[in-house]
Amino acid sequence: QVQVAESGGGLVQAGASLRLSCTASGGTRNTYTLGWFRQAPGKEREFVAALAWSRAETSYADSVKGRFTISRYNADNPMRVYLQMTSLVPEDTAVYFCAATSILYKVAPWSADDFRSWGQGTQVTVSS
Questions:
Q1: For 21-30, how does the pLDDT look when each residue is reduced to its tens digit (9 = 90+)?
Q2: Average pLDDT in the 80-87 region?
Q3: Strand 33-39 to strand 94-101: parallel, antiparallel, or no bridges (unpaired)?
């Protein structure tokens, strides 16, 4: 089973940018989709962005479209994806999780239930 770990969180002011990194090891790179989710206090875990490795196909939640970009690092294992976050607002404050799934394509929006391997999460705090 692939193992996932994320890093790069921190405390920033509104309007700033931040980049998160996710490393997924132990899997065959073209057979996974890597995704980012976030969970704010008292709220459910929500989808942020995903990247299907084999086709580099990306998808985003409406709330982050135009501000966040998911990309991959094209090198040998481990798989590595980034989440570049710009124009951050206080509502982006949450614990951000990276996750992996063997589902390579989905018409409906991704949900947490689609993903089986999860990282520990990294805190992102945006002050106003």
A1: 999 988 777 7
A2: 96
A3: antiparallel
